[in-house]
Write a structure and sequence with these properties.
Blueprint: H1 2-23, H2 27-62, H3 64-78, H4 86-91, H5 96-110, H6 115-126, H7 130-141, H8 149-171
Helix pairs in contact: 2-7, 5-6, 6-8
């Protein structure tokens, strides 16, 4: 089975090259054009992604995340959300790796089969790194007006938090 998986990508690439050759497509020239466009797009996105990485690092290192979680804890408890899940809910829109690390911390502390572990799993799987996605997609096309995008995306993240808690409690807490 491992041999099939290892051979799948080279076989697929070979079939694509063969199909292009059969159809008369200048495969190598087309590849070069695509590679040039990819490099241009990467360079265009670099400042935005660098700024996002610096911002996430500053939020985590400054203690701002803990401060915001402390301020939101009474509100979260009031609506039935465990305060321990708040850092994950706040990190996930910013940093996928930070959210994964925090999810693993929750697993180690409470166990993956605990209610908190299940909520963390559902939340991590049902949300997006919102600001990264916005930076990549909108940065690639040069679109700068995010009037509706950011609030709608954050509303989706908030909805995912609430529904993660509700679904785990109703279906398998």
């Amino acid at each position: 089975m491992e041999q099939i998986g290892a051979a799948a990508l080279p076989v697929l690439v070979g079939l694509l090259l063969l199909a292009g050759f059969v159809r008369g497509v200048p495969v190598f020239d087309t590849f070069l054009v695509g590679a040039q466009e990819g490099i241009r797009t990467s360079l265009q996105l670099l400042p935005t992604l660098l700024g996002l990485i610096v911002a996430v690092t500053m939020v985590r290192a400054s203690g701002l995340l803990e401060l915001v979680c402390g301020l939101l804890a009474p509100l979260a408890q009031g609506v039935g959300i465990s305060p321990e899940i708040l850092p994950l809910a706040l990190l996930r829109p910013l940093s996928g790796s930070g959210a994964s690390a925090y999810t693993l911390d929750l697993f180690q502390q409470y166990g993956p089969d605990s209610e908190l572990g299940k909520i963390a799993s559902v939340l991590a799987a049902s949300t997006e790194t919102t600001f990264y996605a916005i930076a990549v997609y909108f940065g690639a096309c040069g679109y700068k007006k995010l009037y509706y995008t950011v609030p709608a995306a954050l509303l989706g993240d908030g909805t995912a938090l609430v529904l993660s808690v509700v679904s785990v409690r109703l279906l398998g807490g």
